[in-house]
Each structure stands twice: as structure tokens, then as C-alpha cells.
Write a structure and sequence with these properties.
Layout (H helix, E strand, L loop, with lengths): L2 H15 L12 H10 L5 H14 L3 H6 L2 H8 L5 H19 L7 H5 L6 H12 L8 H9 L8 H11 L5 H15 L13 H4 L2 H13 L1
Amino acid sequence: MKRAERARRIHEILDTLYPTQPIPLEHGDPYTLLIAVLLSAQTTDARVNLVTPALFQRAGTPAEMAALSVDEIRGYIRSLGLAPAKARNIHRLSELLLERHAGEVPRDFAALEALPGVGHKTASVVMAQAFGVPAFPVDTHIHRLAARWGLSNGTTVERTERDLKAIFPREAWNRLHLQIIYFGREHCPARGHDLTRCPICAWAATKKRIREEMGARARA
């Protein structure tokens, strides 16, 4: 099956399984979404959602966050990975939003990526989910599934993003980003996955990928 046809069928299945795509990170506006996405690095969305209600009740705006000390911020997020660095980034990021952007989250990739702790993936999530700008943020689920389904060679997340943007329609990027994440969590785990029973892998996984994963299961 050609890659374009494979992508079309995957798109149809994901639209059927996930006709709506709730945003996994709890937030109330672009600023709290930005902070939640920053906090989600190397931890789960569920863990982030446990700590952000108290944090955002205490400081839900850049001005309120900048008024806290780094230690105070760290106290709210200490159960998350990389808490010291994240606390420093959140504090300085909030100061810079006040200094450069009148306390507003900029609707611009370059301006977002210039903020501490904000890389391309975080900026893409904010642009897509807060402002509706077409983007295709690539997380670990999307990166491995794109390779498993033969949609990208999986060498880098940058390559995966380019490949997915090239093969799926621009107007579908934002919802596909969330649909693939949900599918990966619910149907397509990284390990111990029976490809023959998967609604997509059963027919979309490349022969090379099937051989590799069967070999890994045999060695486990």
C-alpha cells in the first residue's frame, strides 16, 4: 500500500475513534496552557494535572507568577521531574511576558521559542491548542507511531514532523496530533504490543517493523 493511501485510511480510522479531541492538559487560557505544557516535559499529563490547580489558583497570570519566588513555584511542582529547572523557567518566562508582550502569550512561533523552557514542540502545542494555528507537535507517541506505520523513517522528531505535515491535510493537523496521542495511549503501547490485534498496526505496520517488534518480544 502506498504511503498516501495508508495515511488516508489512518486518518479515517482516527476520525471515527476520536470525533472530538479534548485537550489533555487542564488549563483556562493560553498562559496556563503554556505553563502546563512546559511542566509536561518528561512527565505525564495526569501528573501535571494533579499539581496545576493549586499552582494556578495561587498564580494564574504572568504578573502573579513573576511575583512569586522560584522556591515558591518549585514548592508547587516538586513532585514533577526537573522541578528546579522548570520553576526557574516559569518564573523568568513570566517576567519576559510582562517585559516583552504586555503580559500576553504571543501568537508567534519565534517569540514563543525565545522564552525560557519553550522549545518547538511546546510552541507548536500552544499555537495549535490555544490559537488554532495549524501545527503538528510531535511527542513520543506520535514519533514512534509514525515510524511503526511507515509514515516516516523515524530518524528525528523534526523529520517526523515534516513527513506528517507533507502527507496529511493542513486543516487536520491539530486534531490528528491529539488523535494519534490518544490512540497511542489506548491502543498502541510501545512495548508488548500485539500488532495483529491493533486497529491500525494490523494492516499499516511495515514488515520491517513487525519483524523488529516480534524479535524484541521473543527476546523479552
